């Protein structure tokens, strides 16, 4: 990540758990620069990590019980040869309204049940897979999460990303999901053999994590 990109995209990348963490679910993050607002709101970041610049580039694992730990996680070395990327939708919006929308949806008992019994366990499995604590294909887990988000979080997805989102599901070349940082970015996963194709296709709108 170049300094220019850090200046342009100052938020933390939250790989998984960006909405579940508000409900006591786990989250796995890697930073670009600043702590992610949604995680910051939980109040679980120790003061030394908030103030000490040495930890700005440290991946963090927020556990279900509210504790947090630094983890040895390299997002460029995902099991089975996958890579994460950010895809710029070209739109800008704040995280806060999305969080409020999500919490409003949680007032619906059916939605809340799906989140707690389906979505949070999926996020947990993905985190465990990425950290090497579970034998599972991370891309397939992202695909299921992507399906879930497309069904239940449709209003949070920028309109211009709908066709791109669906195309990934159909082609199985990549899968997209929402990620928690400010702005209109989608988090994607693909196999390393598709990196050249996607780089050529999306050019400057694509950032490899």
Summarize this structure as a short list of keywords or feature phrases.
single chain, 4-stranded antiparallel beta sheet, globular, 209 residues, disordered N terminus, 39% helix, alpha+beta, Alpha-Beta Plaits, 8 strands, 8 helices
> Which blocks of ≥5 consecutive residues have pLDDT under 50?
1-11, 33-44, 51-55
Strand content: 15-25%
CATH class: Alpha Beta
- Label the structural class: alpha+beta
Number of DSSP E strands:
8
Please compute the radius of gyration using only Cα atoms. 16 Å
> Secondary-structure element sequence?
HEEHHEEEHHHHEEHE
What is the CATH topology descriptor?
Answer: Alpha-Beta Plaits
CATH superfamily: GHMP kinase, C-terminal domain
Overall geometry comes to globular
Number of domains: 1
Level of helix content?
Answer: 25-40%
Q: What profile does the largest beta sheet have?
A: 4 strands, antiparallel
Query: What would CATH call the architecture?
Result: 2-Layer Sandwich
End-to-end gap: 8 Å
Q: Strand order of the main beta sheet, please?
A: 1-2-3-4
Number of helical segments with 4 or more residues:
8
Overall mean confidence score, pLDDT: 80
Indicate the topology.
Blueprint: H1 3-8, E1 13-16, E2 27-30, H2 37-40, H3 47-51, E3 60-62, E4 68-70, E5 82-88, H4 95-105, H5 109-130, H6 138-152, H7 162-171, E6 174-178, E7 185-191, H8 195-202, E8 206-208
Antiparallel strand pairs: 1-2, 2-3, 3-4, 5-7, 5-8, 6-7
Helix pairs in contact: 5-6
In a nutshell, what does this entry contain?
The protein has 209 residues and is α+β, with helices and mostly antiparallel strands.
């Amino acid at each position: 990540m170049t300094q220019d990109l850090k200046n342009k995209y100052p938020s933390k990348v939250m790989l998984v758990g960006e909405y579940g963490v508000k409900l006591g679910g786990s989250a796995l993050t890697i930073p670009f620069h600043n702590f992610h607002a949604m995680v910051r709101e939980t109040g679980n970041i120790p003061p030394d990590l908030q103030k000490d610049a040495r930890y700005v580039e440290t991946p963090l694992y927020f556990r279900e019980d509210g504790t947090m730990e630094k983890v040895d996680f390299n997002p460029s070395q995902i099991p089975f040869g996958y890579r994460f990327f950010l895809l710029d939708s070209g739109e800008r919006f704040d995280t806060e309204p999305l969080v409020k929308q999500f919490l409003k949806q949680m007032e619906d008992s059916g939605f809340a049940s799906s989140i707690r019994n389906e979505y949070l366990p999926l996020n947990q499995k993905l985190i465990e897979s990425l950290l090497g604590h579970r034998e599972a294909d991370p891309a397939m887990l992202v695909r299921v999460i992507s399906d879930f988000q497309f069904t239940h979080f449709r209003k949070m997805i920028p309109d211009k990303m709908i066709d791109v989102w669906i195309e990934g599901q159909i082609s199985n070349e990549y899968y997209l999901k929402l990620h928690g940082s400010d702005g209109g970015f989608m988090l994607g996963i693909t196999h390393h053999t598709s990196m050249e194709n996607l780089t050529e296709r999306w050019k400057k709108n694509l950032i490899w994590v």
